[in-house]
Amino acid sequence: MTTHPLELSSLILDSGEASERTNRITNELSDITDDISIIESFSHVLTFKTDDGLVCFDTSGAGTGTACVEALRGRTDERVHSIVYTHGHIDHVGGSGAFQADADARGYEAADVVGHARVADRFRRYDDTNGFNMGINNRQFGGISKSVGMDIGGEARFLPADALWPTVEYHQDLALSVGGLDFELHHDRGETDDHTWAWVPKHRALVVGDFVTWVFPNCGNPQKVQRFPREWAQALRKMQAMDADLLLGAHGLPVQGTERVNRVLDDLATALETLVHETVEMMNNNIPLDTIIHSVTLPEDVVSRPWMTPVYDEPEFVVRNIWRLYGGWWDQNPANLKPAPHHQIGTEIAALAGGIAPLLSRAAELSTAGDHRMACNLVEIAVHAEPESVEAHGVRSEIYQARRNAEASLMSKGIFAAAANESRAIVNPT
Q1: How far is CA 80 from CA 45, 104, 109, 317, 349, in A?
Q2: Residues 248 and 205 sit within 8 Å (Cβ to Cβ)
Q3: Beta-ladder partners of 121
Q4: Residue 288 DSSP one-character state
Q5: How sure is the predictor about 141, in pLDDT bands with cuts at 50, 70 and 90?
Q6: Alpha-carbon span 253 to 390, nearest angstrom
Q7: What is the DSSP string of 184-239?
Q8: Alpha-carbon Rg of the chain, whole angstroms?
Q9: What does the pLDDT average to over 299-315?
Q10: Euclidean distance between CA atoms 275 and 181, whole angstroms
Q11: If I label 322, which of 26, 39, 49, 248 is the partner at 20 to 30 A Cα–Cα?
């Protein structure tokens, strides 16, 4: 039997150790109070009862939305009055078509869909960059992108065609009242520029979307658009000032008890504040990016906490994102301002080394010794020198598979696994 999410989170926060997974995709509904429920899914659905029907925060993804609706309907037949998008990521909005299909089947009036004004801008961007985003998700999630995207009419779509667009938009704050229950919606930038978090005074509850996810903040994702670490921390401090009794995120476990809630918020905010402060301080001293990313980090006792572990994103990527936010894309290495093509660099270095064989041999040796960073650099040079070499791709596939296995974060694992698979397909084309 699945441990109740509040019970599990309390055990973990009180002991500092996780005996079970904290991000669970069960598609099961659990009551948080008599009037609040959570469906734990690829992205959770949080539901509040009101006198005029249900208010749901997020709808999960395209691959899980139907299961979430079924879980909800296993408990209640009440109409969904409003859907609030915490932000426009497809694992939060992709299941909205299933909610609309349920309303249509029951003859219910369509729900109001509430979101920040930039959600629609995000949807338009997703349509403009559909193929690019499908490729990103295939790398990032290692082939499980159907959980967050889907095929409609034979066309692979990142944003599902039946996703509901917001019908009620706001810019900074919105007082939403449904059936006698008040929600105070606030906009802050963090993982996204369209993020909403909510304060529900009656329940002393914070609904925070991806501001809290029971992993290290996804604030440096190497394949996605800009994140905002300073503003993220500022939003967490605002939440902390509410002295909430319930913290309800879109991933991971709900948290009950003011002390526990504020501890989680403080840990996350402090980590982001530290990375911003130390990175910007080094930037102000005109220290190049290469030095900064190998210098700025967080203590092991911080990132080992079960609600802080870098199993999705990681501090090194956040440092890079801080640089991008404040300093642009140039890393202060003058050769990287207008570099030679990778193929030319690879060919030149291979010629100096006496061919690709010494490069491959040394790369394999370094990989075996655990120096995956340098091993990857060398094997990339060899492959760029001879991009059709089966031998080079054979070594490359082994090195990147070893690196993938040694990494902790999903971001790193996905990219390194994709590189290994790319070379593996050249070695074994059938």
Answers
A1: 12, 11, 9, 39, 63
A2: yes
A3: none
A4: -
A5: confident
A6: 47
A7: EEEE--SSSSS-EEEEEGGGTEEEEETT--SSS-----TTSS---HHHHHHHHHHH
A8: 23
A9: 96
A10: 38
A11: 248
Provide the residue type at 285 as one letter: N
User: For position 155, what pLDDT does the model report?
Assistant: 64
Mean pLDDT, rounded, of the chain: 95
Name the residue ranges covered by the structural domains of the chain: 5-267, 340-427
Q: Which tokens sit at 425?
A: 């397909």
CATH class of 5-267: alpha beta
3-state secondary structure of 364: helix
CA dihedral for 74, 80, 85, 88, sign (positive or negative): positive
103-to-73, 76, 299 alpha-carbon distances in Å:
11, 13, 49
Q: Would you state the structure tokens that stand for residue 9, as one six-digit string?
A: 């989170």
Consecutive H or E run containing 324: helix 315-327
Beta bridge partners of 364: none
Residue partners of 275: CB distance under 8 A and separation at least 6: 229, 296, 298, 315, 318, 319, 322
Return the residue matching tokens 């629609």. 120
pLDDT of residue 137: 85
- Helix or strand or coil: residue 155? strand
CATH 2.40.30.260 at 340-427, yes or no: no
Q: Do residues 268 and 313 lie in contact, with contact meaning Cβ atoms separated by under 8 Å?
A: no
Can you tell me the distance from the alpha carbon of 192 to that of 85, in angstroms, rounded to the nearest whole number? 12
Residue with tokens 């915490």: 86
CA torsion, ordered 41, 8, 56, 138, to nearest 10 deg: -20
Burial of 154 (0-12, 13-18, 19+ CB in 10 A): exposed
